[in-house]
């Protein structure tokens, strides 16, 4: 296996994106998700779009991240709006010409045929290496715990703090970060917020929403719907973690 980036292999963009999504495609339907388009990554953050290739040169994993400034005079702590606000910070810094000092990982996606092989670990290591190579001081991650999909109604504060008998996090994705030396900073309760009509959610998730809370494929929290008002709102919590260099 080898890992390349979009700077050297822009031709791999479509194949890398076709590996799948984190959770469901609805994650990218929010305002922040719409900001991280493939074209913007090609133009602005191509060094931070990493692609793992198998021995035949086919993409088997991708890792996306954006550089930003943290901490700063107007940023004293990691945001409660997690993934959403980190993307906004990166866009603000780009527009303002502010030099970044931190890399924020947005997603690690492994090809279905390679899941369960531990490939996420070298992808995270590659992000840390890329941050160091480009003069950044830290890697932060708004972690979306994988196992939370099975318990969408459980509060993240309760779920994320569970430990196994060996002392490591019970959730396997949190545990992967912990084994690489990352420490939990805090829960970000509004990490991803997405709203849409009942028809939107049918398109995004395949589910016909009913009044109240609805569980959808790939969701780690329920979608709260009001059919009369034709609105469904999804708010998921994540967990901020920081990797040392």
Automatic annotation (TrEMBL):
Pfam annotation, one family: Acetyltransf_1
UniProt xrefs under Gene3D superfamilies: 3.40.630.30
Transmembrane segment boundaries: none
An example molecular function term from Gene Ontology annotations: acyltransferase activity, transferring groups other than amino-acyl groups
Entry-linked InterPro entries: Acyl_CoA_acyltransferase (IPR016181), GNAT_dom (IPR000182)
Domain N-acetyltransferase: 45-144
Record-given protein name: N-acetyltransferase domain-containing protein
